[in-house]
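Question (not urgent): is this output format expected?
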Amino acid sequence: MKANIFYFFTIIFCTSIEAQTIEVNIDLNNEFQEIEGFGASDAWRAQFVGGNWPEAKKEKIAELLFSKEDDKQGNPKGIGLSIWRFYISAGTAEQGENSGIQNEWRRGESFVDENGNYDWSKQEGQQWFLQKAKDYGVEKFLAFSIAAPVFWADNNKGWNNRTDGNLNLKAEFYDDYANFMIEFLDHFRGEGISFDYLSPINEPQWDWEKATQEGTPATNENITDLVELLDSKISKKDLKTEIVIPEAADLRYLYSDFNRPKRGNQIEDFFGSKKNKETYVGNLKNLQSTVSGHSYFTTWPVDSLIRIRQDLNQALKKNNLGYWQSEFCILEKNDDIGGGGKRDLGMGTALYVARVIHADLTLANAKSWQWWTALTIADFKDGLIYLDTGKPEDMYNRESLKYDGEIRDSKLLWALGNFSRFVKPGMQRISANLNLDLPLKEQYEDIMVSAYKDSITNELVIVAINYSENPKTLKVSDSEITLERVYETSTDKNLAFKEIKGTTIEVLPRSVITITGTIKNK
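Got this back:
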């Protein structure tokens, strides 16, 4: 489609209960961010599942996460993730109980030992899923570290007990830590898997003083020191990897101090106008001009969900930066689904998260949206696929689940798939404005629509989230648009496929649908 051609089409939503018509004007030439992908991480659960579980069950999990194929009825077999996050562990698994981390499922192996020797057979289970992601054609790979190898840490632990907010890393080992991550990237390049991105720091605003998992704080100056080393070493190795920072623990740390003066205000500190400051990294060759942040604690109430992303967007525009939402699961208490406790395989959590995805994409212009962990064995809302023993009296036995268990897909998995399976890397978000006489907050409790196009293939994707208890009917009347298929995730459907006949599409209460079609050339 030629860029200088301008036209738009109108979608109409009618509700049979309220006799209301909702128009959505999609302007094909009003373009926003280019999408880089949708992803999830392998941390920590993949280590046991990929290493020990029966082959057929591992294959099923990989299909659910990565497949872009359809079954004989036209229903997607999986959600077609386009980014896979590989966790570079810090060696707490080798320490065992001496790590201080009691939960074995939250420890990780290290590829390097304290003598500088590498063992690339480590993290076998994670490597199994990494290879499967490649085999299924996942487009992008990201490696992330959340703590330095334990023998280089100030306290020789994967978690932190210093109180000054600095990186839990002895000063003399900054270069070793950077070399370690570069050796990791170089090794896997030799194995045929090139990591597109490296995230060396994770949630530096938290102190990580509790021995519940690997993690370290870091000041903005610490991050700059480490990133400058990595940038230089990536160039020397001729790697094509881009560094992404700072994986802020809360979106507000990106544009304000938020009670962490040396660890907040990260957009300004890293990319702001005062380029002579010690923390400025905007001139580095291998650093992507994007900030990554986590949507934790910014999703409730709904007016906060909206306002925080609007504030973030203003800071991004001022500094000409892109944005990734790079980690999320349910943590904060809320009135809709209660909070993170207790797993939920149903539509409640799926809709809550779909609304967060919509807000990050449309209010903050997120180029990528990534879920925390693909697998979970916890009675918590932190996974896409849930694993348990199948025994009601002992559902979450950690020892048993190291070797086998039952696989439970969730509506959240499939609702994410309404985006990840169809909104492909390289697509551009385009304007989809609703002609509703409602404040934005009330729209977020009713109907939300976003749209995406591929200017090369002329593919069109529309995602609609019906958060309400009322059915909607979608009507498309523009002759320049050909609608072809709809995929529905609802109480009894998982990306269920049906061909579109005519110009009206029903959107059931409490459902997410994806409409695919084409834009006719002029």
